[in-house]
Amino acid sequence: MNKITGKRNIDTVFVLIVFSIFAFSVLMVLMLGAGVYRNINDVSRESEQEHTALSYIWTKVKNFDTTGAVHVGDFHDSPALFIDEKIGETYYRTSIYFHNGWLMELYSEATLVFSPSDGDRIVQVESLSFQSVENSVISSLGNELIEVSVNDRTLLLSPRSERGGLN
Question: How far apart, in whole angstroms, are the C-alpha atoms of residue 81 and residue 147?
Fold first, then answer.
């Protein structure tokens, strides 16, 4: 009987070792899968934020694009996109800019002064910049190109505006 009991103990230990290895393998696969899912989710969210920010800016420019209305300037020492419009006798300005990791928008009378934190948060982004681009073909038509960069993506806009806007 002692021989049979010893064999059962060895069989039991062997089964427990095999089960432990299997359980450890399953746990490792689950952990690796969770890490891959997290990375894919982060990349997807960042891409979605970039796309949302660029689509938002493109839509704003196209909806309010009249001659002389869209231009690049500085908003509290940061590059910004300005869209000017006149309603009745009052001039209004939409300022689109980057502040504390957010694409921000501020709509106000053009003559009023606000701080960057007064705007509305649109979407969280890592970086945002606006730049006027010289292009001889576009310039000959009286227009300018505006390069909008969000994180690693770039959008070129060609509004119907000449340089300037409201002063």
Answer: 10
Domains in the chain: how many in total?
Answer: 1
Whether residue 33 lies inside any domain: the answer is: no
DSSP symbol at 117: G
- Residue 70: which of 106, 103, 95, 98 has the closest Cα? 95
Name which residue leads in pLDDT, 1 or 143.
Answer: 143
Task: Examine residue 27 and state whether it is found in any structural domain, yes or no.
Answer: no
Gap between the Cα atoms of 143 and 86, Å rounded: 20
Domain containing 110: what range? 54-157
pTM higher than 0.70 for the full model?
no
User: What is the C-alpha to C-alpha distance for residues 143 and 12, in angstroms, rounded to an integer?
Assistant: 82
Is the residue at 20 inside a domain?
no
pLDDT digits (tens, 9 = 90+) for 26-58: 999 999 888 888 888 777 777 788 888 999 999
Between strands 102-109 and 90-99, the pairing is antiparallel
129 within domain boundaries: yes
What sign does the dihedral 108-113-118-124 (CA atoms) show? positive
Tell me the chain's radius of gyration from C-alpha atoms.
29
